[in-house]
Give the backbone structure.
Amino acid sequence: MKIFGLIAVLVVGALLLSATSDFPDWRDKDSPANKSPVSSFYIEKTEKLTKVPNMVTAVLADYRGYDTMFETVVIFIAGIGIIAVLRNFDGPNSSSIKRENNDEGGGLLARFTCSLILPFIQIFALYVVAHGHHSPGGGFQGGVMLGASYILAALAFGLSKAKDIFSERRTMIFAAVGIFIYVGWGVLCLLFGKEFLNYEALDSILPGDAKMARSHSMLIVEIGVAFTVTAIMFSMYSNLSTRGRLSKGL
Amino acid sequence: MIWQFDIIILIFLVIAAIISLRLKDLLGASMVFGIYSFLICLLWAEMGAVDVAFTEAAVGAGVSTVIMIATVFSTKRRSKD
Amino acid sequence: MTEHFPVLILLVPLFGALIVVLLGRERPDQCWVTSLISLGVSSLISFFTIIAVLSGKVQTLRYRMGGWPESDGYEVGIELRVDILAALVVFAVTFVGFVNTIYSKTRAGAEVRGKIPFFYALIQLLIVGLCGIVMTNDAFNLYVLIEITSLTSYALIAMGNRRAALSSFNYVIMGTIGASFYLIGVGYLYIKTGTLNIDDIRMVLGQNDLWEHQSIIVAFIFIMLGVWTKMAFFPLHGWLPNAYAYAPSMTGTFMAPLMTKVMVYVMIRVMVWVFGNEFVYSSQHVWGEIVIWMSVLAIVAGSLLALARTDIKKILTYLIVAEVGYMVGGSWLAEGIGQAGAFYHILSDAAMTFCLFIAASIIVLRVGDSRVNAFDGLFRKMPLTMIGFTVGALSMIGLPPTCGFFSKWYLISAGIEAGHWGYACALIFSSLVNAVIFFRIFERAYFGKISGVKEDHFPSDSDANPDIRIKEVPWSMLVPLFIASGSVILLGIMNRGLFEWIQTALKIMNT
Amino acid sequence: MDPIIATFIEENIVPNFNYWIYVILMMIGLYAMITKNNLIKKLIGMAIFQTAIILFYVSVGVKDTANIPIISHHGSEHHQMTDLSSETDSTKEIHNTIDKDKYANPLPHVLMLTAIVVGVSTLGLALAISQKIYKSFGTLEEDEILNKLRPGGHD
């Protein structure tokens, strides 16, 4: 097996290396990928057409918004997939277990530190979600940070405390609602007579002109992504750290 | 866009990848994998891909490592290879 | 309204999945109804899409997500593209999903117990992913959708017993390698062309005459390797038999007819749309001959491995491996009849695999044993099920008027036309092996005694007497079986018309 | 560093170095996925494999003259403040046009955001599956699991 694996890996590596000599130089601004009309269009027209200075956010949420919708669906699938694989709903230890151990979680110092920094982490996460138009960040990064803040709470105060805020039922509702916001916003465009995810259709219900409608819609879509990602990140951690029993975390 | 940094980080990356795969202690391997993610996040920030670097910092060095460690704690810590 | 059909096909099951997750835990019985309605609506829409595409007004439906117009002749957004080939495959996918949902009515509660909402949500998302793969015209979007189908199938398979979890893990490893190879290939195309839209990649490749560049050749090889891994082409087939055999039986019937076939569609699409026939079938490249001989190997090995098994589900999964060899070989033989034959085989193989898997899982359910001797005397006990099974088996052997005969006919004649006798002989050999396998089963089913059933296989069942226990299943399982076997015959009867549509569509592609 | 060596490196190694390292990382990851015995190790290899591909894509979008792909207005605003009166429409137009060599190619970044998300989803699901395997087999070593599955093996 090892020999076979080594041979396969070497063949693959040799093929890939043989192609690198054919590539344009690294950092070449005139390489086909960098000077292609698609990339020039994104760089030159994005701010004019969508009023968003961060091109990555604009391309992510608008030009390739269809991709991002499925990216959110991928996260969602991972979340429900982990529950479907790990949880054992009909066993004796499903939801009937009460918290038998109040000592779980970190020590006093950890709790104190966490209670100090958690609000700031969460505010920063919300800032990242909301400010993705102008600075690096967006729904996904902010959502991961928000989810991580709950993971931190679970580590410091014990999973059962964190579960009181963010129960499994709630995570599933949050996750589904996030995608619902994203897809529903696209369907709204459909109902207004334009293509799916064509945010320009919504300029009559959003403040500003059609270009601002794109910008505002990106924010709404990013919020949807943040909902799903927050919920699923926390659900992923809580299931994986307890082998799907959802009691007694790390 | 300083290529010297680029080369140094890339070499560290290869070292980190090899170490994390050689360690027999899975907890240590996950930790080194976190370091690997952090290095690659630095690299992307250096290459101007700030959004990707941000995401990798949150996901690769953060959540991926955490869920990996969570799995190591709820299974076995030693590995045979 | 017609122009929105492609996206509606995707959105209806997507919303269905969300509703199932939101409401499922309170009312598990509603999940079945919800997914039945959503997949039914979706297959209805895809049926109308076929009509719209055939009606002549719109040969090809193009749908620009976000309404972004092209700039300088390049697409800046993501585009969906539905022609007759895509419409046919999408209809097959949604229809199989719909019929299979009917089949899962009584089984879901028993097999996945408390996880019914998650099961139905994953199933609907799987259908969304497969339809998206078929319709999208963007190389990277295709990767995302491939990962959607992969993740749903990992989860669905791992919901089974412990063997299923282990095979699902192998599938994760192989599937990730496959999808990542595809991604590498797309990256190599992107670095040379600067675009991701499939039509635009083709255009740039032609304009700049990049055909002989090493990176384009490597990109082609890696995309092919990735797609072959996902479709379980012979040396890369390791994950498939265990995954499909140990998965919950409903999952098997959902995935076996769809996954590999959609990946074959992707392969044909990449060969024809992205790279074009001149590049793929060019005599300068050695790969044509190699791939055909690999597919001959796949057919022979798949058939022989199936012959060596005694477990009915394992037999069927190895037959899938052989069928993948048919399709890969056919599409690599030559443009024209070989490609069209392989494409027709996608549809007919989906129908007959569906039929056989449903019949087999009904039998395993009733008899409680998945070995071949479970079939002893079944023609007397379960005549209706056995009729369905027989239709599927005859199609697999290749007897008229089933669709298996016609697709095999087209493929063999393509092999003879291309002068590739090895491929034609392998097809005939595989038919003979299939005949041996299935007539062995028929013999048992006609003449065998029921005594082969051991009681300890069903310890939980209260009535241990097999004579009483082995009886026909409820209508919710028989109707899907008959729809499947009916479609096997229907596809066979309609073969000429279908084949002409496929041929003209492929010709339009190449101009 | 010696300037001659530096120019040598810059001309001959730097243009392809990223691509070489990406291939090496990918080979390391792939080798681990195929040959490692421990399931968690396989998954670490998988993560390395995926990040290597992301490294490749991000390297494609780098330009030597470019900065991060976020349009900044500091320059033009400053200009407007200093001579607000003499600003005509034509000069405004000049300031508003964007030099595309100044910004990195955003498309690979977007693609790789999606790929990172797919990577972490796959990792999470695979970890869940390996926990399920551990629950039913009591080990994560592939050879021990296969031993237990063999009919003769004690289970």
